[in-house]
Structures are given as structure tokens and as C-alpha cells.
């Protein structure tokens, strides 16, 4: 017999012996379970701290991991909420704009009803502020019945006059434009004891291309003071009487001068106007006859327009 | 003699360490089917690197220690160790044991074999439900994937005591 065969035989015999021993152990431990469990008890007792440590360690890692996941979820949630917040802010701004428009439209409607005016509600679609022209563009034109010379009001006060019309839009010359002139009347501040404001002197509110307008042709013999209300007199046949133009900012008179030097601050904030009311010529019936028949001045920017005011009718 | 005793002490400690890693540490945070069968890997490693009766006895003892730790029945893993050793003993003349691929294949099949043999023996003696299922296959695959790495650790532990082929 060769050496390797002998060795293999020895291994086989040894394996058989170990196999039989294993079967014997299996039989013995099956009959007496405590035999098998004794090893486990030693194993468990020996490695209990390690098992506990491993479990605790894993739980700690698990907690950290879940905390990290929760943080990431919170971050994602915060981003989503931030996005929603921006959307709501935009929506809120839209609503504020709508509310503002609503207020303006209500004001225009209120004015229309109060003064029984024929008017066309229109939205501002553009501004023009050059050195020689202060105007706005509105979204109503000839097709809608807007005509050159129509009066335009906003926020219950005078805004300007239509200086040119296209089919679907019009250009409005603002009150503050240097070419603008509107027949006006001063309402003196009500003294104590009087119920109604006293009707004061008449004049012409003319634009200067600046923030303030001037009230011209008010005789130095009249009484005008800062804070007095300036309204349309209706004598120009364009604006109905009694629509507010502004307030007297400063009224000065020199000793030798015939007229006051009066500065008027317009009531309308031109930058904030979004909706306007274009007044049709129908109100002209209400205007006093002497005003209709009086000589008219043509706007310098619109030679052919009907922006008519009275020259020298201030008194 | 002294060297033999030292070898078996190292084998015993190594088996305990493997059991701790497999049944204490890995079991704490991995699902059962992903826990690598380190005990089977140790059997395969010893079977590749120890010849003769010492190798057979080592495989048997590894299984027996595993049985003691399992607390169900003494013998199933020891019998599986004997079979693993015998099969590898026959094949070891024809393969290059240091190859990672060989290690992976050997561990994969040995892992399956150990589970089947241990299952059959347990099923024969104790009324335990035993199913050969997908989990066994996944566990064998995980073990096979980790085998080259684990074998290099075993190589370091048994550097002075195992035969080199």
C-alpha cells in the first residue's frame, strides 16, 4: 500500500470516527437538551457585554442615521414651505393689487354716480415722462368712444385730458404737463361756524412740468391761503364743476403785483394711478352758458385738440 | 507538541472571534440572510491549508464549537465540518487555494453544504422547521463575496501555523 493511500485511509477512518462521535453527541444532546444549552450559556454569558455593546452601538448609529434622515426631510420640507411661502406672497401681492384696483374702480364708480357723469372706465397701460411731456396711455380709444379733449379723472380728482386717440388706446396729457390748463376755483378753508366752504376766486391751473402746478390769474385783492382746496370751475366746458384738482401749497403776493403767485399740489399721485375715468362731453349741458360761449385756449401739445380752457376767466 | 497546542489555542480563539463577529456583531445590525457565514469560511480555510488528521480535527472542532454556541443540538455543524474537509481535501490537489476566485467558489458551495447537512441532521434529531430557500442562497452569496477579504485575515492569524501550498 502506498503512503498516500495509507494517509487517505487514516483520514477516512478518522473522519468516520469523528462522524460517529458527532452522531453520538447529537443523540445525547437531543435526549438531554441541557447538554447543548450549556455551551450556549457559557457563550452568552461570556459575550453578553459585547452583544449589549454591539446592540447599543447599532442603536446609536441607527438613531444618528434616522436623525440625519429626519434632518434631510426637514430641510426638504423647509424648502417646500419656503417655495409655498413665496407663492403665497406673490398671491398676496396680486390680491393687494386687485384690492387697490377695486378701490380705485369703486372710487370712480362712486364719483360717476355722485356727479351723474357719462364716463368710460379705462386702465393705465403706460407712462411717458420726458422733459417736454408728461402723459399716460390708457387702454381705451376711438373704438370705445374716447375723443380728443375728453376729461380724465382718477381717485376722485383731475388727472388730465385726452390729447390723442388711437383705435384702441389714447394718450392723456397730465395735469402737471407744461401744456395743461384747467379752469379752476378756490374753495377757502371753512371758518369756524360756517357749514359750507366758501366759494373763492377763479383762475387757471397750469402745469409746469414739475411736481407743483400754478394757479394763475387770481387777483391780489382776493384771499387765498395755503391748504385751500382747488376744484374745477366747469367754465372750460371740459371738466364738470367741483372736481378736486389739488390743494394750495403756497400763495404769495407782491405789493405791486396784480395777481397772486399760487402753487397747487395735485391731489392725484400720478405714479399710483392704475384705473381712470374718461368723462364724455355729455356733462357740458350742466356747464354755465357763459363758459360755453367764452373764448378757448388750445393745448400747446395738441394744436388741434379740444382742450379748451378760458383765458382770463379767473375772476 | 508545543506548536500543536499553540495552533489549537489559536484555532479556538479564532473560532470564538468568528462566532462573535457572526452571531453577535453582524447579527445586531444585519438581517439574517445578509450575515456572512464566517464559521463556514473558517472551515474552508482550514481545509485548504491544513492537511491530514490535524485539518480534519480542526474542521470538526470548529463545527463543534459552533454547535455549542447554537444551543440546539451538538453535532450538526461538526458533521458538516467533516464533510467540508473531506470534499476540499479531495479537490485541493487540483486547485490554487490562494486564488480569491477559488476561495469565493469554495465558500459558496461549502456554505450551502454546511447549511444543508446541518439542517438535515437537526431535522433528524429535533423537530425544527427547516427550509431550503432563497435566504440560504443569499447568505452563501454574501459569504462568497466576502471570502477573499476574510481569507486574507485568516491568513494573517494562522501565518505561522498553517501549511503553505
Overview in brief:
Chain A is of the alpha+beta class and 315 residues long.
Uncertain ranges of chain B? none
Number of helices of chain B: 6
| Strands of chain B, count | 0
Strand order of the largest sheet of chain A: 1-2-5-4-3-12
**Mean pLDDT of chain A, nearest integer?**
78
H/E element order of chain B: HHHHHH
Radius of gyration of chain A from the CA trace? 46 Å
- Oligomeric category: heterodimer
> Biggest sheet of chain B: strands, sense, closure?
none
Strand-pairing-aware structural class of chain A: alpha+beta
List the uncertain runs of chain A.
284-315
The chain-level structural class of chain B is: mainly alpha
Gross geometry of chain A: rod-shaped
How would you describe this structure to a colleague?
The complex is a heterodimer of chains A (315) and B (165). By secondary structure, chain A is of the alpha+beta class. Helices cover 37% and strands 26% of the residues of chain A. Chain A is rod-shaped and about 145 Å long. The longest helix of chain B has 28 residues, at 2-29. In chain B, 45% of the residues are buried. The interface between A and B is medium-sized, with 35 and 33 residues.
